[in-house]
Design a protein that fits this description.
The protein is mostly helical and 401 residues long. Helix content is 74%, strand content 1%.
Length: 401
């Protein structure tokens, strides 16, 4: 097991921290502390001279979460340019699996909650929480080959990018196109500055990049497009060396502060005092679509992708490894919570039930994936200790699975 000097740079501790923060938010929302905390989260903070006037809860989901997606986009760009996904031949397989991990949960959701009041929640179960999924993989997957992590990371990031596209397209409101075009200009300036920083390394350039990044975020937020889109765009265009340093610098803050704070705020919902049969179809649709829709979609599409891989490509992942990745993909959490807030923003009761659905569905997926990943990791550890002849035979059998 890899030991990190700072636990916030690892995968296990941040996942536990995220779960504790969500549990604490849910607990305090259902105690007498509710009114005081709710009042604080609803308090507005405005930026003088701008159109930005957001509640503290929205500063968390629109501002802090944009930093998280900046880091996500940096990691995606690295994988696409210098990592395991640096060619279409490598990227196509997780992309196909990610497509299944989006389409099948949508279908499951609409089959259960396709009525006029709840149908708008169909994007909610499409996302995979990268931090949680990789945390579970780190905790229970000792012995799994690294390509399983790469496959999971790729499809999880692609899932989240798809979720962000949904946010940009479906939940934009009264878009001010001039402001959004100005934001794109800011992204272009950021791109130029990042390359100057890559070439010269002058600290004033880094300061200028920070200012341009904040202004770009403000323009996106004011344009009516969800502000997290700014983080994605900036992360994708940043030059490699500054991007790597930025990711390294921000990782502890993202894992130790931003994601736990968002998890607390998003999970701060009152559990409805109703019988299970009286819960909204949206709740049940999400509870089923996350653990079941994800594992079915990723497994079926992933298996198909492995069957059609190009000649000369890396060996196919065994079917059981794809199942493990599919189970991990059902941990929706971060982006699913954000989508639940947006999909039912006009109906607080329905929104809270959708959030509860995300928490329950993600917890079920977490438990299921922990079992499957543990069994798979045990098989690999046993295989590693087997005589070489048995190992070769088992490898061939696994590839054919």
């Amino acid at each position: 097991m890899r030991i990190t000097a700072n636990p916030l740079r690892g995968q296990q501790f941040p996942a536990v921290l995220l779960l504790v923060a969500a549990g604490l938010g849910l607990l305090l929302a259902n105690l007498p502390t509710h009114d005081a905390i709710a009042g604080l989260l609803d308090a507005h903070l405005a930026v003088p001279g701008t159109a930005l006037d957001l509640s503290i809860a929205h500063w968390v989901s629109d501002g802090l979460l944009a930093v998280f997606f900046l880091v996500v986009a940096i990691e995606l760009r690295h994988e696409l340019t210098h990592g395991e996904l640096d060619s279409p031949r490598k990227a196509v397989q997780p992309a196909i699996a990610a497509t299944g991990g989006v389409l099948v949960p949508i279908l499951v959701y609409l089959l259960i909650a396709g009525g006029p009041e709840t149908a708008s929640g169909w994007p909610i179960p499409t996302a995979t929480d990268i931090a949680f999924a990789l945390g579970v993989l780190a905790m229970f997957g000792r012995g799994l080959p690294s390509r399983v992590r790469v496959f999971l990371l790729a499809l999880a990031i692609l899932d989240d990018i798809i979720g962000i596209v949904f946010i940009a397209v479906l939940f934009a409101h009264d878009v001010q196109w001039l402001l959004f075009v100005l934001a794109l200009v800011g992204v272009a300036v950021f791109w130029v500055l990042s390359r100057l920083l890559h070439a010269k390394g002058h600290p004033l350039i880094a300061v200028a990049m920070t200012v341009v990044g904040v202004v770009t975020w403000a323009l996106v937020a004011s344009s009516g497009v969800h502000a997290t889109i700014a983080g994605v765009m900036l992360g994708l265009v940043m030059a490699p060396v500054p991007a790597g340093r930025t990711r390294h610098a921000l990782e502890p803050t993202v894992n130790g502060v931003i994601l736990p704070v968002f998890a607390f705020v998003a999970a701060f919902v009152v559990i409805p005092a109703v019988a299970p049969t009286e819960l909204s179809p949206a709740f049940w649709a999400i509870v089923v679509a996350l653990p079941v829709g994800k594992i079915v979609g990723i497994t079926v599409f992933g298996w198909f992708a492995m069957r059609i891989r190009p000649r000369g490509a890396d060996p196919a992942l065994p079917f059981a490894d794809i199942v493990a990745a599919g189970a991990l993909g059902g941990i929706g959490f971060t982006v699913s919570l954000l989508l639940a807030n947006l999909a039912f923003a006009a109906d607080a009761g329905l929104r809270d039930q959708a959030i509860l659905g995300v928490l329950v569905g993600s917890l079920l997926a977490l438990l299921l994936s922990a079992v499957i990943v543990s069994l798979r990791a045990r098989w690999y550890r046993r295989l590693a200790g087997a005589p070489s002849g048995e190992r070769v035979a088992s490898d061939r059998g696994a590839e054919d699975a």
